[in-house]
Amino acid sequence: MKNFLGLFAIIVMVSCSSGDSDPAPAPENNTPTASSYIEPNNNAVCTGEEISETEIRVDFQWNAFQDVEDNNLEYTFSIRNLTTNAIVATENLTGTSTSITLDKGTSYSWNITATDSEDASVTGVTWQFQTPFNTISNYLPFPATLTSPDNGATVTTTDVVLTWEGNDPDDGETELLEYAVYIDTVNPPVTQVAMMLTAETHTETLTTGIYYWKIESKDPSGNISNSEVRQFIIE
């Protein structure tokens, strides 16, 4: 009889415990998806409201980024002076537009980062533009965008292929740009290894080591701009 009661108690305990279940895991949060920008146009001279002899107020607008959970997105707007490479403004916004007062006759780049309520974020592409001068003038080229090798990349061949993209805000001058290539073991690089290039690529034979490189862009009027400096390693 005691054995029967003991077995019955075990059955009851198992039966009760089988009704308990682990809570369902929280659904995985998805990262927002970046959308396109609207204005100011990429690689162009912008328009805006003249504030003074030296300043212009420029409108920025972009399409809403997408989020499958329909989370409320917060946008971080960031704009950089391409001449000084300094961030000149950042704003946290819930809408898809803003206006910024900028210096005339200056090149800028900007991008948007969207963050959802779970702190997942995505950054859109970077666009660049030129603010106008007071009078008609020839603008400096945009600093070349370095495309490869990636910054800090390790290269396994001594024949290093460098590629970049050049743009000029003046109509018809992008295809007329000439490029000079600087590669060095010091930062910033001072050794010019090629000049008067019209193609946006150059192959340089080097030995193993750490190298820094940049591209100088020159337009038909002799205006010059310099890209950022990148590093690569040859092993």
| Alpha-beta content class | mainly beta
Task: Give the helix tally.
Answer: 1
Q: What's the CATH architecture of the largest domain? A: Sandwich
Portion in helices: under 10%
Note the overall shape. flat
Beta-strand proportion: 35-45%
> Which H/E pattern describes the elements?
HEEEEEEEEEEEEEEEEEEE
Sheet of most strands: 6 strands, mixed
What name goes with the CATH superfamily of the largest domain? Immunoglobulins
Question: Kindly state the mean pLDDT as a whole number?
Answer: 90
CATH topological fold name of the largest domain: Immunoglobulin-like
Can you tell me the number of structural domains? 2
- The number of distinct β-strands equals 19
Account of the 3D structure:
- The chain has 2 domains: 37-130, Immunoglobulins (Immunoglobulin-like, Sandwich); 145-234, Sandwich (Immunoglobulin-like).
- It is built from 1 helix and 19 strands.
- The chain has one helix at 2-17, and strands at residues 37-39, 44-45, 49-50, 55-62, 74-81, 86-93, 97-103, 107-115, 121-123, 127-130, 145-148, 153-155, 159-165, 178-184, 192-197, 201-205, 209-218, 224-226, 230-234.
- The N and C termini lie far apart (81 Å).
Quick structural gist:
With 235 residues, the protein is mainly beta.
